[in-house]
Amino acid sequence: MQKIIAIDGPSASGKGTVAARVAAALGWAYLDSGALYRLTALHAKNQSVAWNDEIGVANIAASLPVVFANQNILLDGQDVSQQIRSEEIGMGASAVAKLPAVRSALLQRQRDFLTEQGLVADGRDMGSVVFPDAPLKIFLTASAQVRAERRAKQINVPLSGCQFEQILADIQTRDENDRNRAVAPLQQLPDAKLLDTDNLTIEQEVQQVLDWYEKSINKTA
Ligand code: DC
Questions:
Q1: Residue nearest ligand 1's atom 10 by CA
Q2: Structural domain containing residue 138
Q3: Domain-located, residue 215
Q4: Which residues contact 95 (CB under 8 A, 6 or more apart)?
Q5: What CATH number should be reported for the domain holding residue 124?
Q6: CA angle, 5 then 6 then 7, to 5°
Q7: pLDDT (0 to 100) of residue 177
Q8: Alpha carbon of 221 to those of 5, 115, 133, 149: distances in Å?
Q9: Ligand 1 centroid vs 179 CA: distance in angstroms?
Q10: Which of 36, 45, 53, 129 is buried most deeply by CB count within 10 Å?
């Protein structure tokens, strides 16, 4: 049986934190696939390639000079771990992620993260496209309001007022883009387990994923 846990879900759902902790608990590798789309958008911007230039951006994606070194992400030797998290690069990632040639250029690079020890992968199409045979697929979500509140707390923004409304609107726009695009849209697959995190702590979310994993091994043993 392949040792893969595929976790998909919308923007700011906290799936990255959960996926990284589950990977650490199992001693497996971790793939943050969104980071690859963010890196592609940033590198395209640095090379003055427009985000809607499908062939240009696909070439950038196919030859990304990136190194994942523990917590740091080096692009062309420069640590860009913070820079790729900006709202601007998030929107760029959402734009380049719509382009089929860019998605194909990143496909093998994502699959290369799978090692014998196992892999926890998070994104939008981990269970549908990149690792369709993953024995455990999870759709991790929370309401747009709760996700906006979590993001606002992270960056010290009050939970009401126009700054908060902007965060909520950005999350809703990104959801719309990710759900309604033609290629690899964000969706809950029929074989994915739903993890609704509105009322859960991160520890409870991690535990739930580990419990499901235990059950999936026992079922196939
Ligand atoms: O998870 P994230 O917010 O870092 O992802 C950034 C963008 O990349 C998001 O708008 C959707 C896109 N993405 C995707 O299309 N497919 C993935 N597997 C991961 C991310």
A1: 94
A2: 4-205
A3: no
A4: 41, 51, 52
A5: 3.40.50.300
A6: 115
A7: 86
A8: 17, 21, 17, 42
A9: 11
A10: 36
